[in-house]
Amino acid sequence: MSLVVVGSIALDTVETPFGSITDGLGGTAVYFSMAASLFAKVSLVGVVGEDFAQQHRQLLESRHVDLSGLATWPGRTFRWHGTYDYDLSVAHTLDTQLNVFAEFKPSLPETYREAQFVFLGNIDPELQLTVLEQIRRPKFTLLDTMNFWIEGKRDKLTEAIERVHAVTMNEAEIREYTQNYSLTAAARQIMALGPKVVLIKRGEYGSVMVTRDGAFLAPAFLLEEVRDPTGAGDSFAGGFMGFLARAGRVEVSLLKQAIVHGGVVASFTVEDFSVNRLARVTHDELNHRYAEFQRMTYFEPLA
Amino acid sequence: MSLVVVGSIALDTVETPFGSITDGLGGTAVYFSMAASLFAKVSLVGVVGEDFAQQHRQLLESRHVDLSGLATWPGRTFRWHGTYDYDLSVAHTLDTQLNVFAEFKPSLPETYREAQFVFLGNIDPELQLTVLEQIRRPKFTLLDTMNFWIEGKRDKLTEAIERVHAVTMNEAEIREYTQNYSLTAAARQIMALGPKVVLIKRGEYGSVMVTRDGAFLAPAFLLEEVRDPTGAGDSFAGGFMGFLARAGRVEVSLLKQAIVHGGVVASFTVEDFSVNRLARVTHDELNHRYAEFQRMTYFEPLA
Question: Which of A135, A75, A77, A85 is nearest to A106 (CA)?
Answer without folding.
Answer: A135
